[in-house]
């Protein structure tokens, strides 16, 4: 009897222990699923090269997938990436799986043999059990197969765009879904600002702009009907030049989009805008997009420094005139110009501190046309959501993608942020468009104590990082000092043939003034200086046949100074050339 009592007592004790352990297990699982740090993989020692707010870590999930665009994460953590260009086997998508929760992809599968019109794939989204993705000319979908990494369903065409009709540009097709069975697709403008002669100095804008009938807006389609043409959809909003980042916000059941602003203020309207203005303007606009709204392109642009929408110079603007701007859809925030916002994500997870809940992350791909100032963007920003609205101030969340202190040329950047996605545990995934690298960002600190201390480093970086801060008009001009040095070197080594006025001698030596050789391909120009040139050539319609000796004996910095001076003088107005560019092409000789 005593043994029975002892056994009964031990059984009760074991039952209690199991109950306690079971409760602890459930708490742990709940903690993981709700976004706690338990179960999260270890971040890389250097966070994959990224700078992040305090207590955040990043692990590199995969590297060198190819030229990646948007990405999506399934409920089980599987990752799907759309490639800009299909691989050699014509596979335009990539699937990845982490089998052991170390944060690294153990399985990488390329798939998707489907028509990929235009080599400009962009979208990748998961919706109602389907994987939706886009090319330049189609929006497609395939059914995800439960338990399988690579979908086995057939590929269906949802929308077809005959974008090659006439002139075309801005053909990327991001997608978004509402809660009523609708699919949203933008159709970008085929021009910069609807001029009579596109991108030509002084050319006026067309009024009304004929492009607005089929372009520069968002169209609404059925998410499930097959083979829809643009005419089968309805115009949802207009006056938006180019969209690559777009998302539906379930919090207020509204569409939001990031507008890529126009180009070339200084080049086309040098009497009104300096290179400094042209580097910062127009703003990249964070827009809430109500049905029937008009954001004002091509007639208006947003100036974040003045906090106003202003009339474009093609339509009579002078950098100050507001015209009828008040009747157009105003942005929630105007970001600095040419940052290139290529994805938009509303954070709904629980892993990050509360201040990130319902806020917006924006991936800035990075500029190409900010010379003579450092290129800008190449980062991920965050816009807080508080008291029922988005903040008017944005924060720097992730930086360091460029891999260099100052990005002079786009090619200097090691990585360019492209896509954003939220994992089932609340991790934030970010990828790169050049090599196809994926980062997973996780929070490992105390959410309740997270605040100013953890944000201080990125706040300081926003004010000092050359690719993020607004450049000083004098100190950050990368051509400062180069023109004087270049002028001296030009007169020493070049003026005897091309003349001090850059016009050549009219018979033997061609002009560098307003020359297509000078204003054209940088590489070709650098190689001519390095290697010399002989044989017949044509410059400005006139033939020349005099040998030019090589000048490879000059230092990289000297050649850069000469060519920067030439490309900025004698009626030329082209971007500067850096010593790194000269060095790169010298090495390829």
Automatic annotation (TrEMBL):
PROSITE patterns in the cross-refs: CYTC
Keywords, ordered alphabetically: Heme, Iron, Metal-binding
Domain Cytochrome c: 481-570
Top-level lineage group: Bacteria
A Pfam short name: TrAA12
InterPro entries the record matches: 6-blade_b-propeller_TolB-like, Beta-prop_PDH, Cyt_c-like_dom, Cyt_c-like_dom_sf, Cytochrome_c-type_DH, Quinoprot_gluc/sorb_DH_b-prop
Single GO molecular function: metal ion binding
PANTHER family: ALCOHOL DEHYDROGENASE CYTOCHROME C SUBUNIT, BLL4482 PROTEIN-RELATED
Name by which UniProt lists this protein: Glucose/arabinose dehydrogenase, beta-propeller fold
Organism: Daejeonella rubra
Lineage: Bacteria, Pseudomonadati, Bacteroidota, Sphingobacteriia, Sphingobacteriales
């Amino acid at each position: 009897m005593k043994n029975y009592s002892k056994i009964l007592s031990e059984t009760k004790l074991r039952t209690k222990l199991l109950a306690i352990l079971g409760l602890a297990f459930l708490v742990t699982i709940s903690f993981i699923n709700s976004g706690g740090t338990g179960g999260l993989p270890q971040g890389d020692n250097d966070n994959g090269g990224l700078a992040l707010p305090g207590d955040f870590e990043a692990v590199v999930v995969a590297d060198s997938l190819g030229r990646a665009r948007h990405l999506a994460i399934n409920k089980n953590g599987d990752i799907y990436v759309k490639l800009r260009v299909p691989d050699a086997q014509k596979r335009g998508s990539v699937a990845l799986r982490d089998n052991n929760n170390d944060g690294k992809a153990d399985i990488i599968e390329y798939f998707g043999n489907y028509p990929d019109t235009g080599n400009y794939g962009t979208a990748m989204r998961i919706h109602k059990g389907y994987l939706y993705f886009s090319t330049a000319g189609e929006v497609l979908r395939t059914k995800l197969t439960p338990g399988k990494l690579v979908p086995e369903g057939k590929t269906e065409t949802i929308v077809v765009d005959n974008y090659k009709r006439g002139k075309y540009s801005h053909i990327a097709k991001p997608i978004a879904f509402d809660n009523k069975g609708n699919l949203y697709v933008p159709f970008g403008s085929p021009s910069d600002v609807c001029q009579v002669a596109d991108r030509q100095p002084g050319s006026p804008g067309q009024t009304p702009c004929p492009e607005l009938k089929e372009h520069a807006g968002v169209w609404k389609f059925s998410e499930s009907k097959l083979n829809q043409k643009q005419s089968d959809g309805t115009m949802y909003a207009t006056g938006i030049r180019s969209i690559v980042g777009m998302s539906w916000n379930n919090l207020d059941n509204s569409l939001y989009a990031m507008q890529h602003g126009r180009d070339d203020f200084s080049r086309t309207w040098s009497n009104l805008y300096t290179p400094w203005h042209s580097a910062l303007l127009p703003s990249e606009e964070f827009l809430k997009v109500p049905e029937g709204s008009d954001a004002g392109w091509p007639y208006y642009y947003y100036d974040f420094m003045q906090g106003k929408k202003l009339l474009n110079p093609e339509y009579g603007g002078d950098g100050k005139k507001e015209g009828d701007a008040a009747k157009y859809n105003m942005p929630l925030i105007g970001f600095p110009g040419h940052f290139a916002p290529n994805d938009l994500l509303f954070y709904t997870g629980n892993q990050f501190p509360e201040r990130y809940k319902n806020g917006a992350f924006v991936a800035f791909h990075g500029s190409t046309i900010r010379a003579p100032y450092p290129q800008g963007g190449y980062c991920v920003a965050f816009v807080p959501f508080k008291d029922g609205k988005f903040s008017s101030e944005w924060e720097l969340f992730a930086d360091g993608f460029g891999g260099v202190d100052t990005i002079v040329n786009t090619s200097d950047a090691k990585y360019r942020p492209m896509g954003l996605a939220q994992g089932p545990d609340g991790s934030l995934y970010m990828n790169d468009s050049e090599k196809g690298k994926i980062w997973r960002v996780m929070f490992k600190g105390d959410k309740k104590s997270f605040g100013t201390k953890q944000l201080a480093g990125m706040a300081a970086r926003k004010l000092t990082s050359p690719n993020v801060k607004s450049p000083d008009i004098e100190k950050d001009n990368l051509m400062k000092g180069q023109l004087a040095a270049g002028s001296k070197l030009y007169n020493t080594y070049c003026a005897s043939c091309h003349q001090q006025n850059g016009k050549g001698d009219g018979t033997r030596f061609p002009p560098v003034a307003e020359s297509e050789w000078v204003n054209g391909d940088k590489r070709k120009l650098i190689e001519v200086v390095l290697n010399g040139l002989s044989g017949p050539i044509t410059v400005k319609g006139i033939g020349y046949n005099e040998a030019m000796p090589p000048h490879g004996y000059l230092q990289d910095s000297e050649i850069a100074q000469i060519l920067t001076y030439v490309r900025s003088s004698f009626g030329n107005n082209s971007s500067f050339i850096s010593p790194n560019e000269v060095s790169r092409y010298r090495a390829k000789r």
